[in-house]
Predict the 3D structure of the following.
Amino acid sequence: MIFKKPEKKGGLPRIIMFCGKGGVGKTTCASSTAIHYSSAGYRTLLISTDPSPSLSDIFEMNVKGEVTEIPSLSNLDVVELDYDRILDMWKEKFGEEVYLVISSFLPVERDIINYVAGAPGISEEFALSYLYDLYIGGNYDVIIWDTAPAGGTLSLLHLQETFYTHMIEAARLYIRVQETLKTLTGRERRDPLKIIGKWEKLAKNVLDMVRSEETIAFLITIPEFLSVNQTERIKLELEKFNVTIGGIIVNNIISSGYNGSNLYKERKKVQEKYIDIVDEIYSEILPVKKLSLQEYEVKGIDALLKVEDELFSS
């Protein structure tokens, strides 16, 4: 698999996304790619937005909630998003602004605002905002994004687009009702348009980050019916968001030299059928990389280095 090299100095970092059905090896491929770039001298961040992440398991150290340097590797920071912490950060960062916006319409108390700020989905909505802060922070040349299983990642993108549209409509609504509010209450109310405009800009910036030509998505699949079928759906959905697709990685392929049981021989025949389908659909339009089913448990730096060697071999 050939990845375009990011610039080492200046500008915004390249983002490499790994997307696919749950259990196909996104974390393994993302972690091995992060090691590859960090070893080449690029300041690299590996981030997981999976609500059930496994970066801590695969690196054998706790990386939940805090950007953590991997001691045995240079230039590599790793973090699993802690969605409870994201919610707390959101309340701290935007809670006062939520109060100002809503209280400009209605005479509500702060405990009501806190309840609204804790609504289901709020933390997921601002997960991409957290990623954006790291993106513009200037600390990295490349960000490797280990995404949630396909449905979760696509939901995040749809939420962000919906939030952006909602903020535009919120501003229009407030302009229409502000004179009425003034008439009914007999007093001036705090104008939330600047805050609404700030949130609208944030949502636009996050969408621009995902749609940037420097953001590349790689689709991970295994040679089975459900995974191969879902890969095409993921590709089409990402293309709707104008996300650039960099290639397909077919993982967990049984080696041709394997002389195992009859069960494995039959499984290999099934795999070959779906490998042919992947080649037929994608080989002329996208790079297709094939990774072997490993004989060892992919856990720890040494195991990831072996996967990196195969992933980046010509």
